[in-house]
Amino acid sequence: MTAIEVDGISRTFELRSGAFGRRRQVVTAVDSVSFQVQRGELFGLLGPNGAGKTTTIKMLISLLLPTGGGARVLGFDVVGQAKDVRRNIGYVFGGDRGLYSRLSAMDNLKYFAELYAVPHRIRDRRIAELLAVVGLEGREQERVEGYSRGMRQRLHIARGMLHSPAVLFLDEPSIGIDPVGARELRNTVKRLVETGTTVLLTTHYMFEADELCDRIAVINHGRLVVEGTPGQLKSRAGSSGILEVEVFGAVPVGATEKIAALPEVHRVGVEDRDGSQLLTIGTAKGADLEADVLACLDGAPVARIHTRPPTLEDAYVEIIEAS
To answer: Residue limits of the ABC transporter domain (predicted)?
Structure first.
């Protein structure tokens, strides 16, 4: 059964500039995007900054009106039945906003339970259940100002789940969280999906999307570029293998262009590291280019060189560069 149906949804904004705002410019933030999310699915919406991810979510949770197309959440129209949509969804965003730092986690959850109209007869039981799900049992009486960022994000999720929404929107929930906190947050999301909650997730961390998502849609410049499972996206990447070469210091001038011109090379990326540069070279299936690449580097000191299969991040970069 379908939980979210997005049918050609669009959103434009009008910007004014000049001394008296006489010059007008129409900016398209989301351009005819369509996709579906099934009940119980964890669906990822990926894209660079400014691609239209958050704008899409805000239209789906009825905070923004579409200027074209439409969408339904759990069968409710996001424009005509906005109240029904809001009663059945939860929304969690990245950052520290949305909680009262001087209150304890328990007092925060009791306050938001009142706002969500959670019946008093089940409120305490529901809060206890959520504290267990997000791993904050035993810490609920502590002030939120003493929580780590990861703990705050898990409390955000508990807040968003108080009214037992069937669909949860997570907008970059792990941004700025340390690796341990991010792992705990991912485990929390997995437990929510196991309980039957439908989750729509945006993230900039490709390993996170690869680990969590059943399906992924990539959006760029407001348009949906590709959709599929993480495995399908990786298989669509033009490169069948990735050759990584770490060079001490800087890559010689002109070496990158020489490597890119090799017949079985699809793309070349350069990443600055502490005291070195890492070349990421997308190659054709079965290509053995180590000797050719080393020749292009013209004797530059190489720390390491090895071949690995493409990751979701490699596929994502190729998809974005091609769109």
So the answer is: 4-246
Q: Rg of the Cα trace of the chain?
A: 23
**Among 80, 52, 86, residue whose Cα is nearest residue 65:** 80
176's CB contacts (< 8 A; 6+ apart) are: 94, 95, 149
- Backbone φ and ψ for 257, nearest 5 degrees, come out as -65, -40
pTM score:
0.82
Tell me, yes or no, whether 197 and 253 share the same domain.
no
Return averaged pLDDT per consecutive 10 residues of the chain, 323 residues in all.
94 78 82 95 94 94 94 96 93 79 94 91 92 89 90 89 91 80 84 91 91 95 94 78 89 90 88 88 84 89 88 87 81
Do 120 and 208 lie in a common domain? yes
256: its two tokens: 């990158």
Are residues 72 and 198 both part of a single domain?
yes
How do beta strands 76-77 and 23-38 pair? Answer: unpaired
The answer to whether the beta carbons of residues 232 and 280 sit under 8 Å apart is: no
Task: Give the dihedral sign, CA 251/237/52/24.
Answer: positive
Structural domains in the chain (count): 2
In sequence order, what are the residues at sequence separation of 6 or more whose Cβ sits closer than 8 angstroms to the Cβ of residue 257?
Answer: none
What 3-state class would DSSP assign to 276? strand
Instruction: Assign residue 100 the CATH number of its domain.
Output: 3.40.50.300
**Residue range of the domain that includes 149:** 2-235
**Neighbouring residues of 224: CB distance < 8 A, sequence distance ≥ 6:** 33, 34, 35, 217, 218
